[in-house]
Hints:
Strand order of the largest sheet: 5-4-3-6-7-8
Helix content: 25-40%
Shape: elongated
Distance between the termini: 78 Å
Mean pLDDT: 78
Number of helices: 10
CATH class of the largest domain: Alpha Beta
CATH superfamily of the largest domain: von Willebrand factor, type A domain
Largest sheet: 6 strands, mixed
Number of strands: 19
Order of helices and strands: EEEHEHEHHEHEHEHEEEEEEEEEHHEEH
CATH architecture of the largest domain: 3-Layer(aba) Sandwich
Number of domains: 2
Strand content: 25-35%
CATH topology of the largest domain: Rossmann fold
Amino acid sequence: MIHKSLSIVVATGLIGAATLLGAAPALADETENSEPPNVELVLDVSGSMKAADIDGETRIAVAKRAFGKVVDALPENTQLGIRVLGATYPGKNKKVACQDTQQIVPVGPVNAVQAKNAIATLKPTGYTPIGLALKKAAEDLGDTGSIRRIVLITDGEDTCTPPDPCEVARELAAQGTHLVVDTLGLTPDEKTRKQLVCISTATGGTYAAAKSEEELTDRVQQLVDRAATPPPVQPATVTGTADCANAPLLAPGVYTDREKISEHRYYRVAVPSDQELRASVSIALDRPVNPDYGVLLKASTTGGRELVRGVDAGSGRADVLSAGLRWSADEQKADAKASAEAADDDEAAEKAEDASTEVCLIVSNSFAATTAATAPGMPVELSIDLVDASHTPDAPGLGRGFLFLLVVAVAGLIAGILAGWITRYWVATWREN
């Protein structure tokens, strides 16, 4: 998920799993490396950047100045590269024009003079091969295992499909190489905005728009600063299964997966008898889907008996759907202990007191795609935590059964008697006057 990104990113404390039964659980990765991730700026230098509609200046002139300010403000340890698209081929041969993308600054420690000189020579020229540029930018960043971020700045949509940039973004995200694409639209129209939102959503990135030099400078600086700050917890990649028996056993943490349209994915969690399971899931809508859809998170026993269903949750974003649940092992423990005591088995009763309960988490969706393409699956972010159980008070509990009815009846009787006395007193006083 999604995240955030899926952004939908949720950080939870990692809790030891010494009491878990069976195979060792999968663990989420906690980021300990303080080095910033590699970042590459991808700038559209196609012919449309000649338009003089930003405070009377051309888009490319404003973009150059904004880039210069950002480069000057970058921390020395930033690992930055710059790639351009549509910058060199002025001809009409579309096949050639759609291969026009170059890395003008290799990824590495920032050399402000080199970067600004490379940007200063750019002239708006050709087509807009965004899909190819994203593929090449991912190659530029390499696969070091750390977070990699691309910041795409463009004033228009891709003019070279195929490859479709949304499909490219989904394929890159599905590789599980921690690649995030943030997009920035320069005076974007609606078609451009939708394409850039699609690209960023597919990889857990963000979208922003700019219509002035000040906005462009601020937005680029924010994106680069965000890219240079590694997350406190790196979500671990996990693969859910089609049934509970073969599902991965997960410890508390944050996980990423991908789920296809109308699919059910299973995961397992061992919940100690004195703890409560809290889980949430977010799925990013990285492609168009038909109306009336939803996400469901359920917990069940390994035998298939449903324990609890999650409730919908969200922050108002229409491109990310979330659900969450909480479940305590108290009820299971009480049932097992009662059965053991009824059988007069003290050893079994003692084991039931301390036993863990293995729970299946099921993530499902009711999406219907508007196209035939359903692969790769949509990004899923699953957050799992175990906390001390919130025990329900045993007594007296005014909301429980006959005691509650008795209290209501007594209260009604007293209220009726008082009302009668007050009425008789008022009538007697009125007659005397």
